[in-house]
Amino acid sequence: MTQQQSLTLSNPIISQKEIQQTIESLADKINQAYAGLTEPLIGLIILEGANRFASDLLKSLNINIDCSSIQVKSYQGTESTGQVELCQSMNLDIAEKCILIIDDIYDTGRTLRYLIDYFKRSGASEIKTCVLWEKNIPHEVPVHIDFCGRKVPNQFLVGYGLDYNGQYRDLDYIAVLE
């Protein structure tokens, strides 16, 4: 899609209510998985896309969790650049800690693989992944997802944290950018 083309949004394909139900289900699974954890879980939120999801998810968790954020970039417009760039690192020591990576969407797999490898090098004792959406595609870089909200179609989605060059991120629902 070139920037000269006119962009339009579809009707919502996932409503605000469906999003919240998906988050509640994820929170239940995470609460169960970490119920016996004695030390705080370290939640690492991938900026900017996962901010809104993480905020709603954290409200529903009843476990001891310390959060920080990390910012990476891998998209230009509607296309993956094929490279992951670390823009802002976290401000927590994660050596010998249990980590939960919180991201909005699993599509190519490059970002999650990059971060898993980064956190392994930083000495994390356990790394798990949590994504709200997983694109229903063969992933270029396969990654095990421990907590997945739901699969979504292979279309360019916007809303609820997902954006197109910074736009549409604040929608309360998910739509297709056409």
Tell me briefly what this model is.
The protein has helices at 16-33, 51-59, 110-121; strands at residues 41-47, 65-76, 79-88, 98-106, 126-135, 147-152, 157-158, 175-176. By secondary structure, it is α/β, with parallel strands linked by helices. Strand 1, helix 2 (51-59) and strand 2 (65-76) form a beta-alpha-beta unit.
Model description:
The protein has 178 residues and is an alpha/beta fold. The protein has a single domain (17-154), classed as Rossmann fold (3-Layer(aba) Sandwich). The chain is built from three helices and eight strands. The protein has helices spanning 16-33, 51-59, 110-121; strands spanning 41-47, 65-76, 79-88, 98-106, 126-135, 147-152, 157-158, 175-176. The strands form two sheets. Strands 3-2-1-4-5-6 form a six-stranded mixed beta sheet, sandwiched between helices. It has a two-stranded antiparallel ribbon with strand order 7-8. β1, α2 (51-59) and β2 (65-76) form a beta-alpha-beta unit. The radius of gyration is 16 Å and the shape is globular.
| Low-pLDDT residue intervals, each spanning 5 or more residues | none
Question: What is the total tally of β strands?
Answer: 8
Helical amount among residues, as a percent range? Answer: 10-25%
| CATH class placement | Alpha Beta
CATH fold name, please? Rossmann fold
Sheet having the most strands:
6 strands, mixed
